[in-house]
Q: What sequence folds into this?
């Protein structure tokens, strides 16, 4: 992976040790402006520690970290104004109304407003975007869990950040709220050039949102690529199911399109109930985590995909 001073996030050989335990063991990656990057990994992989280091809330034991061109541990107020954070949970002000709370947080960003990036977002516009316009004058303590999560998102983006960290942002969302959130993320990235790094255990969500996916396991980045690259180049198999002559058939192939073309050329109208199942991100994720535990390397990396085993990196 590269080290690039123009990257919004540039992490090189970052290590974090608690006592004799290496929580992070040589983490290296970058995130470019406007990218949506999803950080995946099992519990205990080091995701939270990585995010806290990037946010400036924790000092690494070693390595180099630059976020928006600065060491986050030394970032001042102007730097923090460019960073938005949506935590997994936080203590809110239950007696405040939704409007009051958003306006209060928004006021903190007003001194850092510029003609190119006016701050904060207008409260009414922001509440409309996150689906809380009808709850604007309701006390926070009376919101449902999903509505509180929408409020978390509103507070995280009220300052119109250049970089947004999201920790399990759609926990508690119903399907409509989840879809609206996905639309908001695409708008922030595509129209406002906001760089977004999020963690989630929802692999379907990761596949829908991510320009690039990082898989962190055992304190190391074990894979880096788009969802399509990871699924096609790593898990790599397509399952084709069909019926013919009253029998059900299943075949695994590396090239589903070519196999189906040949199948139809041979059997034509005899084929029925045709199904083609490509490798999902879940298949890929499980394969990558298992592969990261293997004692041997796995050959050369494919274009656009970085694959690192623990033994190769030591």
A:
């Amino acid at each position: 992976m590269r080290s690039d001073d123009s990257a919004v996030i540039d992490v090189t050989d970052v290590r974090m040790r608690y006592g004799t335990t290496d929580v992070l063991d040589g983490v290296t990656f970058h995130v470019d402006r406007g990218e949506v990057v999803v950080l995946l990994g099992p519990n205990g992989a080091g995701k939270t520690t990585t995010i806290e280091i990037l946010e400036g809330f924790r000092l690494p034991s070693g390595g180099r970290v630059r976020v928006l061109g600065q060491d986050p541990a030394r970032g001042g107020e102007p730097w923090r104004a460019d960073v938005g954070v949506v935590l997994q949970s936080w203590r809110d002000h239950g007696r405040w109304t939704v409007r009051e709370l958003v306006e209060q947080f928004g006021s903190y960003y007003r001194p850092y407003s510029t003609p190119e990036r006016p701050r904060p977002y207008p409260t009414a516009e922001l509440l409309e975007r996150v689906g809380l316009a009808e709850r604007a004058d309701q006390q926070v303590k009376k919101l449902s869990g999903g509505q509180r999560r929408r409020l978390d998102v509103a507070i995280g983006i009220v300052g119109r950040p250049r970089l947004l960290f999201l920790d399990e942002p759609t926990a508690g969302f119903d399907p409509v709220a989840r879809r609206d959130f996905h639309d908001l993320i695409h708008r922030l990235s595509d129209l406002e050039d906001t760089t977004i790094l999020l963690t989630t255990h929802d692999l379907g969500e990761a596949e829908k949102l991510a320009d690039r996916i990082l898989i962190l396991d055992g304190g190391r980045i074990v894979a880096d690529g788009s969802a399509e690259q990871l699924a096609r180049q790593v898990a790599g198999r397509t399952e084709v199911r069909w019926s013919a002559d009253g029998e059900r058939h299943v075949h695994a192939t590396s090239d589903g399109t070519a196999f189906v073309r040949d199948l139809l050329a041979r059997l034509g109208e005899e084929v029925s109930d045709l199904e083609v199942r490509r490798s999902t991100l879940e298949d890929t994720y499980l394969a990558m985590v298992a592969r990261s535990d293997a004692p041997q390397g796995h050959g050369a990396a494919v274009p656009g995909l970085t694959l690192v085993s623990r033994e190769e990196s030591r």
